[in-house]
Design goal:
Largest sheet: 5 strands, mixed
Helix content: 10-25%
Strand order of the largest sheet: 24-23-25-26-27
Distance between the termini: 60 Å
Structural class: alpha+beta
Length: 413
């Protein structure tokens, strides 16, 4: 008798569960769609769509309402590490030519270079692609001839001298940073600003046949180190903290660049500068490097660079001066080869406040990973300590090879 009662109760529970499942599946399409728009994390949105067939058919495959997502760390052409889940995602990707270089990450798109003049954009999530004007259309490239192996490019430097460069050198070192004004999937009216050979800011709009330089009006040379966009406007910073502002919406062609010369605080030094907007503030992040010797076998020069510290400065627009910051508060920064990013740490799992998450994007020796490890990690402003990223535990050696790890904001649109 007792066993029959347990069997009966089990059947009743099963009926209720089936009935509950049917009720959830039969929610009105409008209600399911409204609930989906309350989700702010892309992975949550994907799980929401996978609940049942009716939910999947009720909401868009590609969400357009999502805010910027916590970046993934690109480990290889297919592998991306998700900080919030401590999980590696393997994505289908377009086959890449040998020696492909990821030269930038902006709005969820990667800028790809190889040993040809082609410059392509790729969204790893959607596999969508776009083309930008090729490398030989930069104004300082006088000629390009693919048959002249090892000296394909004839290039003029800012002082008027002419020299040859190989396709390999142009692929690895000529274009140092590229940022988009918006995601190309959001419309055709996007633009790009690139740092070329350190001294030049090059601009193009979608559909342009060639790049144009926009920073040579005053005749002074600047060593540009980083560029970032804010609400569709480009901001570049130089080695000495000079700011260049370029608005793609300007009707003038080429658009005018405004130069701002802030006052730098005493002791303003850094080996690399990054520009980032954080909660509306314009920050300059300086990275300090030191040299160390590696005991890796088979390396011609054991001297490598390692990050030892960061300093953060905030732009005071009223006084036109860089002011040192001792804390980021609840903010977290992501810097490297990507367009620099800032988030509120409490909005996401898996990241720590008052920290800078960094990757290596500077030394050719480190770029080639010749000594078996990358210079990347988490810098804590509170105690100036550096700890490894969770996907690169202490003592681990990278077996990833090309490309360099780079931060990418997962952007399905």
């Amino acid at each position: 008798m007792h066993n029959r009662k347990k069997i009966f109760e089990k059947k009743e529970r099963s009926k209720r569960q089936r009935k509950m499942g049917a009720d959830w599946a039969e929610l009105p399409k409008e209600l399911v769609e409204s609930i989906s728009k309350l989700l702010t994390i892309y992975s949550d949105y994907l799980r929401f769509r996978s609940v049942c067939r009716s939910w999947r058919s009720s909401v868009r495959k590609t969400p357009v309402h999502l805010p910027p997502q916590l970046p993934w760390l690109m480990l290889s052409h297919r592998a991306f590490f998700d900080l919030s889940l401590h999980k590696t995602h393997l994505l289908r990707n377009h086959p890449q030519p040998p020696h492909t270089r990821i030269c930038a990450s902006s709005h969820g798109w990667l800028a790809l270079l190889d040993h040809t003049p082609n410059l392509r954009l790729l969204n790893p999530l959607t596999r969508a692609t776009r083309s930008l004007p090729p490398l030989h259309t930069f104004p300082n490239v006088l000629t390009f001839n693919h048959s002249l192996v090892g000296r394909e490019y004839l290039v003029a430097n800012p002082h008027g001298a002419v020299h040859t460069l190989s396709s390999r050198h142009v692929c690895t070192s000529f274009l140092t940073k590229l940022v988009l004004s918006q995601s190309p999937s959001r419309g055709p009216h996007f633009a790009a600003l690139a740092i070329v050979a350190q001294n030049n800011l090059a601009f193009c709009r979608n559909g342009s046949d060639a790049w144009i330089f926009v920073n040579d009006e005053d005749g002074e040379l600047y060593c540009w180190e980083d560029v970032v966009d804010y609400n569709g406007v480009f901001f570049a910073v130089s080695k000495g903290g000079t700011i260049a502002v370029c608005d793609p919406a300007c009707s003038r062609s080429p658009p005018r660049v405004s130069l701002i010369q802030p006052t730098a605080p005493f002791g303003f030094v850094g080996d690399i500068n990054y520009a980032v907007f954080s909660a509306g503030d314009f920050l300059l992040v300086t990275r300090l490097l030191d040299q160390e010797f590696s005991d890796a076998a088979g390396v011609e020069s054991n001297l490598v660079y390692r990050t030892v510290s960061f300093e953060v400065f905030k732009m005071n627009w009223g006084l036109l001066t860089w002011q040192r910051l001792d804390t980021l508060g609840d903010r977290v920064l992501f810097v490297g080869g990507n367009s620099s990013l800032s988030f509120c740490a409490s909005d996401f799992e898996g990241c720590s406040a008052d920290c800078i998450y960094f990757t290596d994007d500077y030394s050719e020796l480190n770029d080639d990973d010749a000594c078996g490890k990358h210079d990347l990690g988490i810098f804590r402003l509170c105690d100036k300590s550096i700890e490894p990223l969770p996907c690169f535990p202490p003592g681990s050696f990278s077996q990833l090879g090309w490309p360099l790890p780079i931060w990418l904001s997962p952007n399905p649109c």
